[in-house]
């Protein structure tokens, strides 16, 4: 896009969704606030996404694709099986550095806020869980063999605790603390 061209309404809506839904909350944020932030009409929202839920689902899909790309980069750079398993923490640090400041994880936040989410949102939340658990089980296999699922579960708990630590503001470096916990768990296998 050349200088002076306006960002398309769809992209502005997605940026606004990222800014307000995952910082202030989905339920707490009305459609009017999203429209105002994006500087678009209601017709644009409904034309591109059909509903507020459609916008939330698409914002989560975009975020999931970006997250997976960052994690792919970190996993490829890992120099050992243990580093590959722990790459989820490296990816979290890189992802948070690239994204606008968010209180914590958009997927956990959405799952908490919308436990009865419609099919479209629920499908994206499930895809995030499948990515996380499937990849960690795969990365745990060389380290834990038949107990790879158990090790992956341990790492998921450390990862979720790392995300929650951002809400609490403690420890000072949640990624490093979560990484330490996950590495200690891997050493036990």
Automatic annotation (TrEMBL):
Residues 30-49 bind DNA. It comes from the Bacteria. PROSITE patterns: HTH_TETR_2. Gene3D superfamilies: Tetracycline Repressor, domain 2 (1.10.357.10). This is TetR/AcrR family transcriptional regulator. Pfam families: TetR_N. It comes from Arthrobacter koreensis. Keywords: DNA-binding. Residues 7-67 form the HTH tetR-type domain.
